[in-house]
């Protein structure tokens, strides 16, 4: 993160890259992504906003730095078993889900961003290595890492988002789901037979089981790709 050219304000000497990232992460944790502004980060650092702009051009550049910092904070390579690609991917995906859930609005932060910082590059490199080790073609490897990342970000996004306006207003998710299950089961069965029959399953709150189910199905697809290659 090189400083911009020119003579910076005196406060620039206090603004180390790691301090800026730490202040931005703390701001996001406290106020969410919508509350993350250059002004709020500067305030947390105890400097003028203009001083911060000598190091970070705008909020978009700051978000790129945060993506890389979050990705770098967990070493995925420790989950890799060279002898078992599937177990490696299960461990990686579970670890990244837990890791992302530790950062407020992390799914929104990661959505759509592909930066070239060392943290995110190591994250991608690790998963690419596992997929290539599983025997996938170059094309299938590239598409699968995109698929896995999209699933992870989307699932964490569902977990981090409020279920409804009522939950945003303070109702507990469990109370909302209990009430929703009752309302779904009470729908006219002639119009919504499947929803009525499956009401309890539709509102079951066990997100761990849902994550494992979806991940298993995705990895079954990877297994099928491996089978296609072996059968050629």
TrEMBL record:
Where the record annotates domain HTH tetR-type, the positions are: 14-74
Record-annotated DNA-binding residue ranges? 37-56
Q: Which processes are annotated in GO (biological process)? A: negative regulation of DNA-templated transcription; response to antibiotic
Q: Which Pfam families match?
A: TetR_C_1, TetR_N
UniProt xrefs under SUPFAM superfamilies: Homeodomain-like, Tetracyclin repressor-like, C-terminal domain
Q: Report the domain of life of the source organism.
A: Bacteria
Which protein is depicted? Regulatory protein, tetR family
Q: Which organism is it from?
A: Allokutzneria albata
The major lineage groups are: Bacteria, Bacillati, Actinomycetota, Actinomycetes, Pseudonocardiales
